[in-house]
C-alpha cells in the first residue's frame, strides 16, 4: 500500500485561532505542535485544559494530546522537525494602527530556525494583517533573518482564518472557503494540499494582498450590518409606536433577503447580523475595522462609512443607559443588574465587550451594580467597589430593581419564568432583543419607540 506523505505542522501562537487551527489539523490526521511563549497557557493545555472557554476544545485536546497533537514553549526543535508553520499570534490595534510587533517577532524566530534547515519550509500567515504586510513587512524579515529566498528555499502564504468564537471548532472543521494567498506556485500548491481533507470547500488562490484584504472586507461587511441595524433602531426609538424588530422583519422578508424553500422562507445567516442591539465587540471586528480605517487614511482614502460603523458602535452601549434614564433619570444608588459580560454568548471573551463601556458609565454615576455572566465570573482588569458579582440569575433578580441584558446567553431566556415565579417586576432593558416583550411586565428594548414600551404591542400586520 502506498503511504501518503503527510506534512507535519507547527502553529505559532496558541490563542483562539492558533489552538483551534492546530487541534482541527490534528483531527484531520496531521501531526501538529502548538507553540506559545506563555508557559501558563502551554501548561494548561498539557494538563488537558483549554486556556479559554470554547465548545469542543477540551475534547479535542483530550483526544489528540501527545498522540498527534503537542503543545510546547520550545520552538527551535519543533519548527525544525516540521514542514509548515502557521503564524497565529495577536495583531492588536495600538490606538493608532495595527501593532505588528508580535508577528514580526514570531516570523523572525521561525526564520532563525529555517536558516539552518536543509529542506523547504512553508510559512502561512493566519493572523489578521493589513494588506501588504506579508509581502512588504514579513517577507523581508524572514529573508534577512534566514538568508534564504522566498519561492526558492521557503514558501510564504497568506491564509486568513474566518472562524467565529463560540463555533470555532465547527467553523474550522467545516470552512465555507479557504483563502490562500502567495507569490509562487509551489507554496500555494503545498498549502492547498494540506486542506485536501477539508473537501467540498471553495478554495480561493490569489496574491497575498488580496487574501489579506478579503479578511478585512469580510469583517467590515458584518460589522456594517450590525451598525446599520443599530442606526435604524436608534431612529425608531424616537418615533411613537414603532418597534425596530417589526421594521427589520419587514425589511428581511424581501425576496432578495429571504430564500423560499419547501419549508417556507429561510433567511440566510448573514441577515442575523442585521439585528439591533447594544453593539458588537470581540477580538476581531473593533480592532480590524480600526486597522483598516487607519490603513486607508495612510493612503488618503476616505472611510466615511466605516467611520460611521465604529462611531455608532462606540455609542451603542450608552444607548442602554440613555434608555434607562428615561425611567430612572437619577442613577445614584439604583440597584442595577447587568446580565452578560462576554461580548457574545458561548465565549468567555470580554475583549471590547459592550458591557465594559456601560459598566464604566454606570459606575461613574454611582449606581449599585450586580453582575452575572454564566461563564465570566469576574473582570480581572476592571475593579470598582460598586460592582458585585453574583453567582446566579436568581440572586441577581432578588437584589435589583432594573435589569440590563447585554449578552444573549441562552440561560437568560429563563428570565421571564423566574420573574413570574418570584413575582418580581424589575424594569428589564433588553440590549439584545432576545426576549418577547409580552413575557415581561416592565419591558423596554433597544429600538422601541416611546409609547410602545407601555403597550407592548407589535404593530406589524401579520
Ligand atoms: C468574527 C467573524 O465572524 C469571523 O469570521 C472572524 O474570523 C473574526 O471575527 P467573532 O468575533 O468570533 O468572529 O464573532 P461573530 O459571531 O461574528 O460576532 C461578532 C459580533 O457580531 C458580535 O458582537 C456578535 O454579537 C455579533 N453578531 C454575531 C450578530 O449581531 N449576529 C450574529 O448572528 C452573530
Spans where pLDDT lies below 50 across 5 or more residues: 456-462
Number of strands: 16
Bound molecules: uridine-5'-diphosphate-xylopyranose
**On the 0-100 scale, what is the average pLDDT?**
94
Give a brief description:
The chain is built from 16 helices and 16 strands. It has helices at residues 16-27, 39-46, 57-64, 76-80, 101-114, 133-146, 168-173, 185-194, 208-236, 244-252, 285-298, 304-327, 354-364, 393-399, 415-422, 452-455, and strands spanning 9-12, 32-35, 69-72, 84-87, 121-125, 154-158, 177-182, 202-206, 259-261, 264-266, 335-339, 368-372, 387-389, 402-405, 427-430, 442-445.
What do these coordinates show?
Helices cover 40% and strands 15% of the residues. The radius of gyration is 24 Å and the shape is globular. The chain contains 16 helices and 16 strands. The C terminus is likely disordered. The N and C termini lie far apart (64 Å). The longest helix has 29 residues. Bound molecules: uridine-5'-diphosphate-xylopyranose. The site of uridine-5'-diphosphate-xylopyranose has 18 residues, from helix 9.
Characteristics:
single chain; 462 residues; alpha/beta; 8-stranded mixed sheet; 6-stranded parallel sheet; 16 helices; 40% helix; disordered C terminus; binds uridine-5'-diphosphate-xylopyranose
SSE order and pairing:
Elements: E1 9-12, H1 16-27, E2 32-35, H2 39-46, H3 57-64, E3 69-72, H4 76-80, E4 84-87, H5 101-114, E5 121-125, H6 133-146, E6 154-158, H7 168-173, E7 177-182, H8 185-194, E8 202-206, H9 208-236, H10 244-252, E9 259-261, E10 264-266, H11 285-298, H12 304-327, E11 335-339, H13 354-364, E12 368-372, E13 387-389, H14 393-399, E14 402-405, H15 415-422, E15 427-430, E16 442-445, H16 452-455
Parallel strand pairs: 1-2, 1-4, 2-3, 4-5, 5-6, 7-8, 11-12, 11-14, 12-13, 14-15, 15-16
Antiparallel strand pairs: 6-7, 9-10
Uridine-5'-diphosphate-xylopyranose is lined by residues 161-165, 219, 222, 226, 272-273, 275, 280-282, 284-285, 343-344.
